[in-house]
């Protein structure tokens, strides 16, 4: 999964190991499009695909550590003073754990997705 800078804001992109990809202006649009395309392909091969997460969760935005990281990132780019060194280290460790948890969840959802 990737987030690119689009003409009208972020562009969310999801790709699989077999070369299929979908994108959208929101995580949900990209995820729904990817699922529809993936379901059509998998049904042709006799497999059924189902997922219990939405695009926001797929991209990790429901994770509290990711939310905290993004809030601090926005605050730092807005000119507010940076947090102290220990807080930054703690946040990096929490974010790394959150990313690992998200990647683990994603790989359980569909092993064909790139991590």
Automatic annotation (TrEMBL):
One Pfam family from the record: FYRC
Signal peptide region: none
Residues covered by region (Disordered): 1-20, 96-115
Swiss-Prot/TrEMBL GO biological process terms: regulation of cell cycle
An example Gene Ontology CC term for this record: nucleus
Protein name: Putative ovule protein
């Amino acid at each position: 999964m990737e987030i690119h800078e689009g003409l009208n804001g972020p562009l969310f992109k999801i790709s699989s190991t077999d070369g299929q990809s979908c994108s959208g202006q929101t995580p949900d649009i990209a995820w729904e499009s990817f699922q529809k395309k993936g379901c059509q392909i998998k049904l042709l091969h006799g497999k059924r695909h189902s997922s219990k997460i939405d695009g926001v969760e797929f991209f990790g935005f429901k994770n509290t550590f990711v939310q905290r990281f993004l809030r601090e990132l926005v605050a730092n780019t807005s000119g507010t003073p940076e947090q102290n060194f220990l807080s930054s280290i703690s946040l990096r460790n929490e974010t790394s754990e959150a990313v690992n948890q998200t990647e683990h969840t994603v790989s359980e959802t569909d092993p064909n997705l790139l991590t």
